[in-house]
Each structure stands twice: as structure tokens, then as C-alpha cells.
Amino acid sequence: MLNRRTFLSYGAGLAYATAGCRAMAATPSRVLDAHVHFYDPTRPRGVPWPSKAETVLYKPTYPERYLAAIKPFHVDGVVAVEASAWLEDNQWLLDVADRSPLVHAVVGNIQPGTPHFEDALTRFSRHPRFRGIRISAGSVPAILARPEAITGLKRVAEKDLSLDILLDGPRCLTEIVHLAGMLPDLRLVLGHLPLDPPSDATGRASYISALRALGRAPSVYAKVSGVVRRIGGRVPSDTGFYKPVLDELWGAFGQDRVIYASNWPVCELTAPYTTVFRIMQDYLADKDQETIESYFWRNAQAAYKWPQG
What we know:
- By secondary structure, this protein is of the alpha/beta class.
- The protein has a single domain (4-13, 23-304), classed as TIM Barrel, CATH 3.20.20.140.
- The protein is built from eleven helices and ten strands.
- Strands 3-4-5-6-7-8-9-10 form an eight-stranded parallel sheet, with helices on both faces. It has a two-stranded antiparallel ribbon with strand order 1-2.
- β7, α7 (173-182) and β8 form a beta-alpha-beta unit.
């Protein structure tokens, strides 16, 4: 949520020119950031990610650092996504959630089809803020080929948890369409959208077709956590630059299944959090208030279903 006094004091910086007019940035009543990472490389065992070479990322990263990074904006809650494949790091992140009211939900890292999956899912899902697991898009073809992995994902759906799928490009979208069709009761959350479509006409047509097929599946959500780009050594801050791909997402998924997410602190490899937030505020400036509220918090709540109160 952008505090109203903060909004007024920063009003000049939060307006932008389009078609010769100035439109005020969207102001939701709440903000829930549905994709952040917390970790601590100074732990005795360290972390498997990020590497020491990533000097922007390789430092203790807790809710306090996040809250400092997002100023002057205010966020009411976050979904913390576990990037580590070490099983016990799921518990470490749940412990962080226990200490911080900022963390509304945790998305764990447990790979379906592995021998420990059922026991681990049962164990971690006892925690009320454990609201799903994440896999990579590249693992989807193997999951489709393994009945035990599909059985594991059915357990995820039975527990009313979600499945995040990490997208790193247009690959495997067709397989994700197939997965959504096989498991219609499982909520899929696709990040980090929007993607860069293939440059050739055939590849782009295939990408658009798969994206629209996913949009037609009512249980699939689009996590808008990959907006900002570095082009030719610079990062465009003009919202108009990003409008075509964002329009494409809204057209495919509709206002009820697009979710605000920053991918912090990874986003800072490209641009500060404030740039990420302002671009989306500006993009939504001409939308109605219902759409603004849906994007900035309601849709995340619908996708992850964390406990209220």
C-alpha cells in the first residue's frame, strides 16, 4: 500500500505523461508482494544460492532489509519463496515467517516424485503459512512422465496448496498447459512473467497460443515478477515500453488472475524496487479501482489462500 501522505508528498514523481495528459499512478488500499526471497549466507552451512560472485545478492537478506529497500513505498505482506533445494531450508524460512508478521505465506522447495516428498509435504504443510511448493518449468516434462510425481502434485491439490512454476523463457509452456489440464484442481502460479517471446514468427505464434491456453485454465495465475528489462545497457523506465507485453498478459489472464510480485532482491540486479513498483503503478493508472485492488493484493490471496487474521 502506498501511504496516502507519502503518495501526496511524492505525487509529482509518481505521475507520468501519456498522450499529452498526466495520469496519477494507481493507489491500491493494500499491497501484497507475492515473490520475495529471504536467506542468510552467513549461516554455518551457508546457502546454495546465491553464489558469492553475486555481490548484490550475497548478503544476509531478511524482512528488515526488504522493508528498507522498498521505501518510500509500503507493503502489507509478502510471499516468501524458498530458492534453496536443501530440504531443511523450508523449515528455516518458516521460522523466519514465525518471527515476522510481514510474511503472509511461504512457498517451499520440495520436488515431487522424490522419495521424501510425501513425508516432507505432510510435515511442512502443518504450518499454516506453508502455502505451496515451487518447481522449475524445465522439470515439467519429467514430471508428466512419472506417475509418482503426478500423484505427489495431486496431494498438493488435496491440501489446497499451490504450485509455483519458475519460468526462464518460453520453453515448456505447452507441457504446462498439459499439466494444468491433468490437474484442474491444482492452482498453478506462473512466474516470472512477462516473458520475452521468440523472435521468429513461428515461435512467437506458438508462444502466444500456449500463453492464451494457460489463460483459459481457471486455476492458472500469472505472477508479474519479470517486467523490467535491460536493453542495450540501459533499463527503460518509461511504462509505455512495457505496455505491449503487459497488455498481452491482461488479455490472456484477465484482471482476476494477474498477481503483483517484485522478485526482490533479484530484481535489483536490473533496477531498484522503486522502479519496479512505479512501472506497475503507472501501467494501472487508467484501470478501475477493482482491477487495481485485484492486482496488488486480492489475486495473491486467492492463489495462495493464507490464513486470515
